[in-house]
Design goal:
The complex is a heterodimer of chains A (449) and B (262).
Chain A: H1 7-24, E1 55-56, E2 62-63, E3 65-69, H2 96-108, E4 114-118, H3 125-142, E5 148-152, H4 159-166, E6 171-173, H5 181-187, H6 193-216, E7 228-234, H7 241-255, E8 259-264, H8 283-298, H9 303-306, H10 320-327, E9 334-335, H11 341-344, H12 352-361, H13 369-374, H14 379-382, E10 386-387, H15 400-409, H16 423-433, H17 441-448
Parallel strand pairs in A: 3-4, 4-5, 5-6, 6-7, 7-8, 9-10
Antiparallel strand pairs in A: 1-2
Chain B: E1 3-7, H1 12-24, E2 32-35, E3 46-50, H2 55-81, H3 88-100, H4 115-137, E4 141-143, E5 147-152, H5 159-169, E6 174-179, E7 184-188, E8 195-198, H6 213-226, H7 235-241
Parallel strand pairs in B: 1-2, 1-3, 5-6
Antiparallel strand pairs in B: 4-5, 6-7, 7-8
The chains are: A alpha/beta (449), B alpha/beta (262).
């Protein structure tokens, strides 16, 4: 069943793989999470809800899926994209069969957890979507592959094609590309906000329907069981962090997305419409957005609590949770023995796991500071905000300046070298070259929902 | 008050046999320890006993634990026992003894402030993390006769749990996973249940790779290289996420011809 490529064909495969994975690398999501599917004893493959990372590339990002384009030919001319029509780059295309062979070959050797398939637009969105569907169909039916599949829905493609593809995939995503419609108009002239939101809504409804059917018929095929995600580029257009976070919140609430990914803008095209960030990609900004994203999804925060019209951007020095806590000292300190779970989550240094541990453990014991430490609470941050049996660990002052000074003394652990990041330069630059336009985002959402 | 110290073999069966003996003799858990090797300094006021592993006896303990703690609780104990920690047996024994006194034994895992429970938890996390790593980092290559072959060198004895995972994933493949440190291998024949075998049962030198394997490795190296974004280069982060000790076994971090079977 599985053929080995001969030498000549292998050289061709290698070249195509090089071109098409290079072209796919700016897609952020490489997660294989969200669905558990045991092997059925017949075909090949299973999935695990937590996802599995198979390797890490030299930029420290996880490699879980074979992230690849079916082709990097594209009829569109988006200014930020390396594969745009007007770029003179090597072009290549896999046939669905070739891609299936490669996926299965990699999967058997445990190199990957599955396939992340995207594509440039060939001919029309419909033609492209059909090619994606054909690849997935072959992989699932002919190769009996039951590993993870993440596939892009092409904006503007026929709804029926998207539905059929979704029946074969685990996760689907439509890229929002840029946080606002204004940015999209300027940088991606062939894409329209409405075209992006329509398939997003369709997938959302599809997932809901599939869940309802599942409660009636246990073995009915599932539509996109691992949910829907999207991504947007940060730093290519002048939106503030507040605007971006509000968009993300809307996507979670109104479109029931599983994940929103943020991608620090890397200028690959040197286009005149694009900023050329002095300090490289805005990694700290991206990091803060992910921190805030976690606060929205797991910690019960709202975007309005973290940022607002008056403070539209994140604090460079403090993470969003510490930043919120020092501005709301009236709500602290809380006693770990009696505080609500909801409130424990808001204490800097206490995460979802340690908050759960505290709630479980305090039923049978009076907690002491050393117990908290064992449960994973980061005391050097939490100490200003909590008491055990009504006592602080050592006398501290509940004063903003004092706490901020001490928190800054403890160096924040960042996943990258701080000196590489010149967040200030970037925001300065934004102000110099762009006019901030407040977009009536609400009206846009209304038009679609 | 004298202390009892049971000394047993370092295996799940050995430790569970010792647990059974401790219960049989009605020792008080807080004054009883289970050691997996003899300590050099013998203590005064302690009674040492050595325990011979007995599969039937340990089977009884396994059944009880599964019934009272559930599959998940039992798995927690097993993972904790797969670590090389010398205090693991005592911690597991005391945790399960405390648990069995509760109306719902698995509630013991909520008592995170208890030092024994905490020890079991942290050992389980340690082994579990390595499991998570190796589920992804393990690399197969194909031998002649369509056999997938992998070598690993894990810190914890997690080979059986890994084999479960891969048997579920590749039911129709023959595969062989060798734990080089323990000289133990998991053997899976297509469509059958896997089993553990001593690594002596096959000659590693005699294994022959199927032609074209080097090509697949080369393809993956190419992908691994191309997927990285140069502007975000961050080898420290890579090192944190993928510790160096795993890399000698991974195709994308090795060159052709160093130390692998040909």
């Amino acid at each position: 069943m599985i053929r080995y490529p001969d030498k000549g064909a292998a050289a061709g495969t290698m070249e195509k793989l090089g071109v098409l994975s290079d072209a796919a690398k700016y897609d952020v999501a490489c997660t294989s999470s969200g669905v558990t599917r045991r092997g059925n004893g017949q075909g090949m493959g299973n999935t695990i809800a937590a996802g599995i990372c198979h390797s890490f590339s030299s930029d420290g990002r996880c490699i879980s899926l074979l992230k690849i384009l079916l082709t990097n030919e594209c009829i569109y001319d988006c200014r930020y994209c390396i594969n745009r029509r007007s770029n003179d780059v090597p072009r290549a295309a896999f046939t669905p069969e070739e891609l299936c062979e490669l996926t299965v070959g990699f999967y058997r050797r445990n190199y990957i957890e599955g396939l992340f398939l995207s594509s440039g637009i060939v001919g029309s969105p419909d033609i492209t979507m059909e090619l994606l569907w054909r690849t997935l169909w072959l992989l699932r039916k002919k190769y009996e592959f039951q590993g993870y599949i993440h596939v892009k829905a092409i904006p503007g493609a026929d709804a029926e094609l998207i539905r059929r593809t979704g029946m074969l995939a685990d996760r689907m995503s439509v890229n929002l590309e840029l946080p606002t419609a204004e940015g999209l108009r300027r940088l991606a002239p062939n894409k329209h906000r409405k075209n992006i939101l329509t398939p997003m809504r369709q997938i959302q409804t599809g997932i809901l329907q599939s869940r309802n059917e599942l409660s009636l018929y246990r073995h009915t095929p599932r539509f996109v069981p691992a949910g829907q995600s999207t991504q947007m580029i940060v730093g290519a257009t002048p939106e503030s962090d507040y605007q971006i976070l509000t968009v993300a919140e809307t996507l979670y609430r109104k479109f029931a997305l599983k994940r929103v990914f943020y991608s620090a803008f890397v200028n690959v095209n040197q286009d005149k419409e694009l900023p050329a960030p002095l300090g490289g990609a805005p990694l700290l900004r991206e990091h803060r957005l992910y921190q805030a994203d976690w606060l929205l999804r797991f910690y019960g925060f709202a975007a309005d609590e973290l940022l607002g019209e008056k403070r539209p951007n994140f604090n460079i020095l403090l993470d969003p949770k510490c930043d919120w806590a020092v501005r709301h000292l009236d709500q602290f300190p809380v006693d770990v023995q009696t505080a609500e779970y909801r409130m424990l989550l808001r204490v800097p240094g206490i995460g979802v796991k340690s908050a759960r541990f505290i709630v479980q453990a305090r039923r049978s014991a009076k907690l002491r500071f050393e117990d908290l430490k064992r449960m994973g609470v980061v005391l050097k941050r939490a100490v200003y905000f909590i008491t055990c049996s009504g006592r602080q660990m050592y006398p501290t002052r509940l004063e903003e300046d004092y706490i901020v000074r001490n928190l800054l003394g403890e160096k924040e652990k960042l996943p990258f070298e701080k000196d590489q990041v010149t967040y200030r330069q970037l925001s300065l630059f934004d102000d110099l070259h762009f006019e901030r336009k407040e977009e009536s985002e609400g009206a846009l959402w209304k038009s679609i929902s | 008050m004298e202390e009892h110290i049971l000394i047993c073999e370092d295996s799940v069966d050995g430790i569970f046999t010792a647990v059974y003996r401790a219960y049989e003799k009605r020792y008080a858990p807080e004054r009883t320890q289970i050691w997996i090797s003899e300590e050099e300094n013998l203590r005064l006021f302690a009674v040492y006993e050595s325990v011979d592993t007995d599969k039937e006896t340990s089977g009884k303990v396994v059944r009880t634990l599964k019934r009272r703690f559930g599959e998940k609780g039992f798995y927690t104990f097993c993972l904790a026992l797969s670590t090389p920690d010398t205090g693991k047996a005592t911690a597991v024994y005391r945790t399960l003894a405390k648990g069995l006194r509760l109306r719902r034994p698995s509630d013991i895992f909520y008592r995170h402030a208890d030092p024994d429970v905490h020890k079991v938890e942290s050992l389980q996390t340690r082994a579990g993390r390595e499991m998570d790593h190796l589920r992804g980092f393990l690399r197969f290559c194909e031998l002649e006769g369509r056999i997938l072959y992998a070598e690993i060198g894990p810190e914890n004895h997690i080979l059986p749990y890994l084999a479960d995972h891969f048997a579920d994933r590749f039911p129709k493949e023959h595969f062989l996973i060798l734990d080089t440190g323990r000289s133990l291998s998991a053997v899976h024949e297509a469509g059958k249940a896997w089993f553990l075998a001593s690594a002596d049962s096959f000659m590693r030198e005699n294994l022959k790779e199927r032609g074209g394997e080097a090509l697949y490795r080369e393809l993956f190296r190419c992908f691994h290289h191309k997927i990285a974004i140069e502007a975000r280069r961050n080898e420290n982060l890579q090192k944190n996420m993928l510790p160096l000790r795993f890399r000698p076994y991974m195709a994308e971090f090795t060159k052709e011809g160093d130390g692998r079977i040909s």
